[in-house]
Amino acid sequence: MELAIPVEQWSGAVGTVTLGATAEQGGTRRRTLTLGGESTLPFLRLEGAIPNPPALAMEVLDASPEKWPEPLRAPFGNVLDDPAAWAVKCVEEFGADAIVLRLVSADPQGQDASPEQCAETVRRVLQAVSVPLIIWGCGDNDKDNLVMPACSQAAAGERCLLGTAVQENYKTITACALADGHLVISEAPLDISIQKQVNILLTEQGLPLDRIVMYQVTGALGYGVEYAYSILERTRLAALTGDKMLSMPMLSVVGSEAWKAKESWLDEPKWGALERRGILWEAATAALFLHAGSHLLVMWHPEALRLVRAMLTALQPA
Amino acid sequence: MALTAIEVYKHLPKSNCGKCGVPTCLAFAMKLVQKQASLDQCPEVTEETKQALEGSAAPPMATVTIGAGDRAVQIGGETVLFRHEETFHHPCALAVRLSSSLPPAQLAAGIERVEGCRYDRVGMLLGVDLLALEDAGDGSLAEAAQMAAERSSLPLVLMSTDPQAMGAALEHCGAGRPLLYGATAANLDAMVALAKQWDCPLALCATDLHELVALSERAGQAGYGKLLLDSGAKSLSQLLNDQTIIRRAALNKKFKPFGFPTVAVCAAEDPAAQMLEAITAVAKYAGVVIVDPLPDEYLLPIVTARLNVYSDPQKPIQVEAGMHEVGEPTPESPVLVTTNFSLTYYLVEGDVMASKVPAHVLAVDTEGTSVLTAWAAGNFSAESIAEAMNKFALAEKVAHRALVLPGGVAVLKGKLEELSGWEVVVGPRESSGIPLFFRQRGWVPR
Amino acid sequence: MSRVRVRFEPEGETTEGEAGALLLDLAAKAGLPVRSDCGGRGICRSCHVEVRSGRIRRLDQDGAEETVAAACEVLACQTAALTDLVVYVPPEVRLCPTGEEVAGYLGPGAAALLRPPARGFPLGQRLALRLPPPSFDDPTPDWERLARALREYLGEDRPLVCDLGLLRRLPDGLRVHDFALSATVVDEGDRHRVIDVGRVGGRAALGLAVDIGTTTVRVELVNLGTGQVLGGAAEFNAQTRYGEDVISRIIWSQEHAGGAEDLRRAVVGTINNLVERLLRQAEARRQQVVAVSVAGNATMICLLLRLPADTIRRAPHVPPVGQPPYLSAASLGLLAHPEAAVFCLPAINGYVGGDITGGILASDLAQRDELSLFIDVGTNGEVVLGNREWMICCSCSAGPAFEGMGIEAGLPARPGAIESLVYDRSSDTVQVRTVAGEPPVGLCGNGLVTALASLLEAQVIDRVGQLMSDYPSPRMRQVEGEWQFVLLWAEETGLGRDLVLRQSEIDNLIRAKAAVYAAVSTLLEVLGLTGEQIERLYLAGAFGSHLDVAAAMKIGLLPDLRPERVTVAGNTALMGAYLALLSSTARRQLREIAQATTYLDLSSVPRFMEEFVAALMLPHTELERFPSVVARGSSGVVS
Does C337 lie in the same domain as C218? Predict the structure, then answer.
């Protein structure tokens, strides 16, 4: 019997989204980052092109992460209380494709930093690194609606990715992106329909499809990753079968989720060496998201990033 | 394409006799489509119907058993390419391989370690399923097999292309039905003979997909069907490619030579790279994944990934029943009660968070149903709430004695107060009303 | 115990009761039933009334007694009358039927069942007979003589029975009329029963078609010989006193001593009130009513029969009986000939009852080749999909929102309820049409549907129903932390306060519409069908009768179908009961329908939850399922 290689004929493709703007494009980035564009399943080259490999971003917090366990702090030395220096280290030493600046300091129940303070941090990080920037709010809707306009203006023209728009709170951030030439993260709580609903709401406000990146609340290996895994797979299949409203590239938050898992930090000798466990948990979580179809992973540990980068290389055809 | 319930129904007798165990032929058709029933449950089924429907109902991938007795593992029998389409049925088996030429003391230690690779995870034991012995080609396989058979209860994988070595090893462990890995173009006939003799599953080890087709057909012609497939992929990229083609050809094209589970041997030098290779194989269709004796911190992510990928996506998403903390509540913070249906719970949690008032949330086990559904079905009752209050020791966690009840089940108030002795405060019908409700009660953000 | 007189304003209806009686019960007795969403537990405050004078006891305040000097707002379910009182019942608290009768739809196949020979036998009939007098040649005893003649007349060999009373009356009966007489025979399925003999040409045999809805009970008085409807009447189901929905009532029946009897008595009381009124209007006698057919959901039938209903509530939701045996009116306490036959339309399942079986029969769904969808949105929503070959049904909890529950501005359809509401963005004005043209006091189901469609069109809400907080109109405002939209200003209403729609209420409505649509799409999905394949949609029930179909499609309550495919079918449950009353063929077909219809338990289908979430958008997350809505170009639709 002759083997006929079973090739699927997909009617659609993942859309492309470019983060960052160079000087010619009105920004100051030296590198831009294009996500998506595949007309096939993840890493499966037999039936379509994969013009842009998945990218790895690293996350920088604008307030020193007091609770990080030692294995996670170690590689960063003394930069954890300086977001700009932290970002530089991520890009130059660890090879991050983009920086996620998470404005945890804005949290009204924490430092309650002012919009101006946050905008200043955005400016400093933009000056310090030349890769695209992802600006992520503190998660408090009311506060983010004050902070995001200031940060957006501070980064006007840089084609930053702003996060996040949720069903209950999407208007301010979308207006910012439209006014200052940025992109928006469309967030959903592990539900493919709600993801599509947020996307529709954003586009009905006038945001084009190529300025939206999708984000399903993630979950880590062992902690619900399978729900996100299947939703990402389904979303990719929807894009390939022609659903424009689900065709945007997808982002997954890996580092913060993986390090929440007790396997990453609990002193339990039966689970093996503690100093490697968090790194491996992060890398393993990342691997599942890549196979599910994620385009942009937000990482914490540089060694995990290195391992995932090596896996991406191994997934290139020989 | 699978038939729809209506298409299947058209072939059924339409007598609604109920003898199949469901009241109507349409209900039976729906069961058939969901593979929850088989055609022979219908007493009136005709030959034509069988022919028309069973062609499409025959399993496209064989289920294969490795080992014998309690710890035998079943693999294969998969019906979908993506877990959301149904579920993946038989978790892939994880094998750890040891070289047969290890000195006896080391081999014994290795066997003991593999045997002990069990990780406790909320009441479940995850671990290694198979012990693989790799023939070092120095005549040591038989002795190693003997030791493994004596010291380990795990089913074995014998990795050798030498039929003689394999035969000798089988003398010691053949009764345990090990997986023979495997048959190549050169040794296929001898390996099939051994597999037949010992009634063992046999892996076909090819160098590419086309050779794999040929091996599978030869084994088939030789009358053997307990097969596993290894395409001999040399890179991670090739592994993903081959595994996908095999699964698709078997399921979508009913390509018989590929209607068996697969084997992936992970061989990357770097242990972390090997772990990621194994996770790739777990996610993308391998039936048996063979790795080196990696340290625990590498094995734990692999078995956890397998648990996640093979969990049933049809089950309602539940959160753990019990007391959950939102924010950082104190003994004075309010206590709300809801169900353990994740959508319901997370709505409540989100709205409590939005209120910025730290609180305790008691999730009652309602088998993952929402407040009103559970109430209607009697699973969210004054009794079940009172029981959960006791079970999760509410009285020890908070200093006050007031419980907030969802407004939709306000009717439970009296009975619950009677049973629990607590004050029951009727909260809003919709969780979106929680922030306002808190403000009205004078519960303020901290 | 002393008696008190209570006058209810503004009507001035006065009723008497014992001192200590609850205002809730007294109001019902006065014919002015008030809402009681929580079933009289003092929780929901939906029964708030104003006591203007007299002395009362407040059960919600530890039984405190007070003499009312100035008007005082109290809960009717928590307040007892100690002396004569004057009580004002605000309009939004009223429960009262519109009096407007809903005409039922009858498909041609169903209509044919009303004509001989297809129809067979009515449930009860009066037959004029002339028996040969006994002689030495023919000494057949009286009963056998009558039976022989009847059997010849009926043309069948089912056994014929009677009770002792009839045997005792028979010899005189035959001879008084010289062996020319009329016999009243009822069909009991496997046998006929003779319940009366009398003179030829006496009063006609009458029957009752009864639809016991969770909220409303409707009765038609029917001439069994001619099929003529002599009158119809409707009243709110007095069981509402014990809970708005079936689950609350089941719980009441289980958890209160004598609860099941309370509920039985309540519904029998409602039916008998209606029957009494109809008999009076038709100048007929109770003894003439010899057949009763009853359509109702399984819980309503259980409660009427005082069967334990708890198994309906618990998985797998099995009712104690699907098709009760033929019963006598006396055994149920119904106002009719004591031996009148009572036929209950068979239920498909605990959540899809005889009201739906009746609807399937009346609409002809089971007779046609075309794929039809039948939707009945009442207090619950039931959906049937099928054709001549197969039928499948399910139930979803959707209705209460459309009956005004959980929505302060919501009301059942009654005078003053807004049936249609249109908001105009450019002029910031609202136009309404109310039932009976009275000043608006709230919105009934269709009022809510049209309001939602209109607010979406005007972009007052976004596609997920969120009020646009920056909407440029004073109508958009935030009260106690929640956004709301003022539909009518106080002076435009009959309420004296602003009529608003709150965010949480909009969310509620969207969930209700999503549940109905998701039920439909889940049925299609499990069978591998698509919405375009639906050739006909029957909209049953009072809500369906007044529904603005275009608006309902605009918000995605109904699937997007061409208007000519939609049949507004009205009260098909009552039509089903009417058919059952008049035709033995109909009764047989009802049993067949109940047996052949597959029930799908939505909670066991994981897909339902996904369909539900996808339906939480207006009209739907999959916009392409609503091509005509999108094509009509409601604002801001993406291409």
Answer: yes
Between chains, do A283 and B257 touch, taking CB under 8 Å as contact? no
Q: How many interchain CB pairs under 8 A, A with C?
A: 35
**The pLDDT of residue C101:** 44
Does residue C595 belong to the interface with chain B, where contact is any CB pair within 8 Å? yes
What is each CA distance from B146 to B72, B104, B180, B191, C243, in whole angstroms? Answer: 18, 11, 15, 20, 73
pLDDT in tens, B133-142: 999 999 999 9
Do C432 and C440 meet the contact criterion of CB atoms below 8 Å apart? yes
Helix axes C142-154, C164-176, angle to 10 degrees: 90
Q: Select from B217, B258, B295 the Cβ nearest to the Cβ of A272.
A: B295
Identify whether the C-beta of residue A69 lies closer than 8 Å to the C-beta of residue A76: no
Domain range for C448 is: 406-498
Point out the residue among C480, C528, C606 whose CB comes nearest to the CB of B5.
Answer: C528
Other CB atoms within a 10 A radius of the CB of residue C632 amount to 13
Does C432 lie in the same domain as C487?
yes
Q: Which of B314, B411, B440 sits opposite C41 (nearest CB)?
A: B411
Tell me whether residue C111 is in a domain: no
Whether C616 contacts chain A with CB within 8 A: yes
For chain C, what is the domain count? Answer: 5
Give chain B's mean pLDDT: 92
Q: Which residues contact C355 (CB under 8 A, 6 or more apart)?
A: C211, C213, C295, C296, C297, C345, C376, C572, C573, C576
Which residues neighbour B315 within 8 Å (Cβ) at sequence distance 6 or greater? Answer: B368, C606
Q: Which alpha helices (DSSP H) does C458-583 contain, by range?
A: 503-527, 541-545, 549-554, 572-582
Asked whether residue C334 falls in the same domain as residue C233, the answer is: yes
Residue C244 and residue C165 in one domain: no
The string of pLDDT tens digits covering residues C340-362 is: 999 999 999 999 999 999 999 99
Which segments of C283-382 does DSSP mark as H helices, in order? 298-305, 310-313, 329-332, 354-363
List chain B residues with CB under 8 Å of C524.
none
Kindly give the parts of chain C with pLDDT less than 70: 1, 31, 37-39, 95-103, 398-406, 632-639
The token duo for A274 is 């503690």
Is C104 within a domain? no
> What kind of fold does domain A16-311 have according to CATH?
TIM Barrel (3.20.20)
Same domain, C378 and C523: yes
pLDDT tops 80 at residue B55: no
Take residue A220 and report the two structure tokens written for it: 């880590």
pLDDT in tens, A29-53: 999 999 999 999 999 998 899 999 9
- B106 in contact with C at a CB cutoff of 8 Å? no
The DSSP 8-state label assigned to residue C603 in this structure reads G
pLDDT at position C638, please?
38
Residues C473 and C536 in one domain: no
HEC assignment per residue over B341-388: EHHHHHHHHHHHHHHCCCEEEEEECCCCCCHHHHHHCCCCCHHHHHHH
**Same domain assignment for residues C491 and C395:** no
Per residue in C148-160, pLDDT (tens digit) is 999 888 877 789 9
CA-closest candidate to residue A85, choices A127, A116, A135, A115: A127
Q: How far apart are CA C191 and CA C68, in angstroms?
A: 63
CB atoms within 10 A of CB B199: 11
Cα B249–B250–B254 angle (5° rounding)?
95
Distance (Å, whole) CA B158 – CA B178? 7
pLDDT at A78: 94
Query: Is residue C214 domain-shared with residue C303, that is, in the same domain?
Result: yes
| Residue C115 resides in a domain | no
- Please give the order of strands across the beta sheet that includes C499-502: C476-479, C482-488, C499-502
Eight-state DSSP code of residue B31: H
Domain ranges of chain A: 16-311
C:468-487 residues touching chain A, CB 8 A cutoff: 470
